[in-house]
């Protein structure tokens, strides 16, 4: 670890030295005029860097990026590099001297390279500031600079903790991409304001920018809170399933298998992606109500009348648990009805025929088939052929006839269905917790910039 940090330290020093040398070599007196613009952009960058919030995933999001790009466009490579370096030198977020050095090196180099690229394009194209092509140049420079910043930060992060670059990139840059597009347009608008109306108008526009950043900060804070809440709530549900599984070893695997079977039935039946996700989630959580079972019920013996009544309550109790998750009321309704029968002899409500939710009927089929064929079931497993024969035998009384045929003809007949017997189904893999947390929290793209501190 010490050798890795030493090598990273030397790399950052070399990178910073190269950036400083490049800035000195390319600077001109005119780049630093007007001085008030330099001061305004430096203040914007420093205040924007302090205008930060940390997402639930640990990414540090700040609002200084427009100032760096504006410096590269309106002043030049050297002032942009100087403003970037100065901002990182006085930032509060760096945890260690090495991280501060990495940030200073990064924020010296990427503004410098952005400014050099803009100068090169301008020398060739000689774009007028009031043209759409000039605005496009600024927006493009913003996107390129953001990509370069994230690339450098990601490579540094890989060297620090070994995190794969692509996973870091997907976790940081990808969710921010659409927001960067918006900020790129805003930055182009700020540059246009300055070229057309001068420094005072630019200063007023910067005030508007900070109002925008404040609103986005509030949004991001709310989203991070929602994500943390989602993680806690899903964690509690997972803990409940684990608790049931500890008492009944088949529950987690069975739930995963039912979820996968039911999702395939929904897909084969022409359900929308949203409906497929609903039935998949319901399959994962359909037996969470077993948490209330006594040990005697799990003991695989003949049930007493009281114990049988407890069994008949688990769909309702499971639905009540899941309904406490915001946005999961439809999932709860499916869970509540997954032991109903077409002939009305099911439980807990005695629904029949079309009264039973369509997706709940899919859960019933998947549940029945997996219990019959799984090797860890409470009963002696039967062959897939015998299980299919039994499904068809109870079709029209216990199960939906049309959906049974869909399951047999389009799901079980598919030789690519690796989980045909359900024995390899994995609950955590099916849960895909990260995706569910993000969807539950309804995370929107986040604003501005990520430094090495955010990891």
Write up this protein.
By secondary structure, the protein is an all-alpha fold. It has 2 domains: 2-230 and 445-454, Arp2/3 complex 21 kDa subunit ARPC3, CATH 1.10.1760; 248-424, Orthogonal Bundle (Hypothetical protein af1432), CATH 1.10.3210. It has 17 helices and 3 strands. A 3-stranded antiparallel β-sheet has the order 1-2-3. Strand 1 (53-54) and strand 2 form a beta hairpin. Helix 6 (132-161) packs antiparallel against helix 7, helix 8 (199-247) packs across helix 17 and helix 12 packs across helix 13. The relative contact order is 0.11. The model is unreliable at 443-455 (pLDDT under 50).
Give the helix/strand layout.
Layout: H1 2-26, H2 35-50, E1 53-54, E2 60-62, H3 65-74, H4 77-89, H5 97-125, H6 132-161, H7 165-197, H8 199-247, H9 251-268, H10 273-285, H11 305-323, H12 329-336, H13 358-373, H14 384-394, H15 401-412, H16 427-431, H17 433-441, E3 449-450
Antiparallel strand pairs: 1-2, 2-3
Helix pairs in contact: 1-4, 1-5, 2-3, 2-4, 2-8, 3-4, 3-5, 3-6, 3-7, 4-5, 5-6, 6-7, 7-8, 8-17, 9-10, 9-13, 9-15, 10-12, 10-13, 11-12, 12-13, 13-14, 14-15
Based on the model shown, name its key terms.
single chain, 455 residues, mainly alpha, Arp2/3 complex 21 kDa subunit ARPC3, Hypothetical protein af1432, 2 domains, three-stranded antiparallel β-sheet, 17 helices, 2% strand
Q: Tell how many strands the DSSP assignment holds.
A: 3
User: Secondary-structure element sequence?
Assistant: HHEEHHHHHHHHHHHHHHHE
Radius of gyration: 30 Å
- The average pLDDT score comes to 83
Straight-line N-to-C gap:
17 Å
Count of all domains: 2
CATH class of the largest domain: Mainly Alpha
- CATH architectural group of the largest domain: Orthogonal Bundle
- In helices, the fraction of residues equals 55-70%
Structural class: mainly alpha
Q: Would you identify the regions where 5 or more consecutive residues have pLDDT less than 50?
A: 443-455
What is the overall number of helices? 17
């Amino acid at each position: 670890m010490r050798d890795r940090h030493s090598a990273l330290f030397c790399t950052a020093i070399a990178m910073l030295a190269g950036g400083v040398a490049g800035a000195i070599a390319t600077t001109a007196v005119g780049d630093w005029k007007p001085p008030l613009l330099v001061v305004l952009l430096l203040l914007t960058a420093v205040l924007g860097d302090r205008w930060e919030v940390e997402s639930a995933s640990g990414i540090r999001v700040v609002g200084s990026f427009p100032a760096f790009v504006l410096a590269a466009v309106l002043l030049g490579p050297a002032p942009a590099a100087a403003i970037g370096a100065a901002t990182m030198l006085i930032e509060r977020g760096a945890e260690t001297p090495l991280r501060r050095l990495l940030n200073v090196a990064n924020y010296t180099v990427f503004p410098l390279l952005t400014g050099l690229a803009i100068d090169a394009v301008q020398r060739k194209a000689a774009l007028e500031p009031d043209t759409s092509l000039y605005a496009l140049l600024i927006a493009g420079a913003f996107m390129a600079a953001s990509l370069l910043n994230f690339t450098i930060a990601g490579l540094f992060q890989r060297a620090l903790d070994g995190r794969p670059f692509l996973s870091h990139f997907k976790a940081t840059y990808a969710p921010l991409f659409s927001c960067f597009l918006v900020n790129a347009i805003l930055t182009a608008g700020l540059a246009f304001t300055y070229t057309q109306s001068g420094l005072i108008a630019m200063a007023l526009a910067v005030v508007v920018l900070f109002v925008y950043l404040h609103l986005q900060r509030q949004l991001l804070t709310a989203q991070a809170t929602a994500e943390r809440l989602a993680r806690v709530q899903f964690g509690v549900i997972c803990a409940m399933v684990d608790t049931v599984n500890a008492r009944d070893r088949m529950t987690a695997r069975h739930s995963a298998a039912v979820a996968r079977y039911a999702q395939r039935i929904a897909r084969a039946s022409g359900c929308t992606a949203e409906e497929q996700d609903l039935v998949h989630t319901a399959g994962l959580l359909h037996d969470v109500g077993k948490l209330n079972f006594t040990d005697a019920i799990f003991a695989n013996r003949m049930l007493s009348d009281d114990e049988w009544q407890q069994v008949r309550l688990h769909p309702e109790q499971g639905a009540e648990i899941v309904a406490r998750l915001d946005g999961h009321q439809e999932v709860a309704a499916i869970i509540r009805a997954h032991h109903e029968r077409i002939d009305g002899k099911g439980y807990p409500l005695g629904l029949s025929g079309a009264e039973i939710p369509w997706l709940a009927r899919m859960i019933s089929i998947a549940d029945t088939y997996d219990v019959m064929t799984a090797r860890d079931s409470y009963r002696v497993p039967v062959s897939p052929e015998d299980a299919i024969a039994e499904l068809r035998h109870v079709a029209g009384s216990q199960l939906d006839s049309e959906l049974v045929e869909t399951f047999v003809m389009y799901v079980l007949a598919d030789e690519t269905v690796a989980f045909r017997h359900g024995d390899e189904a994995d609950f955590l893999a099916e849960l895909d917790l990260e995706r569910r947390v993000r969807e539950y929290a309804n995370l929107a793209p986040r604003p501005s910039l990520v430094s090495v501190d955010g990891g």
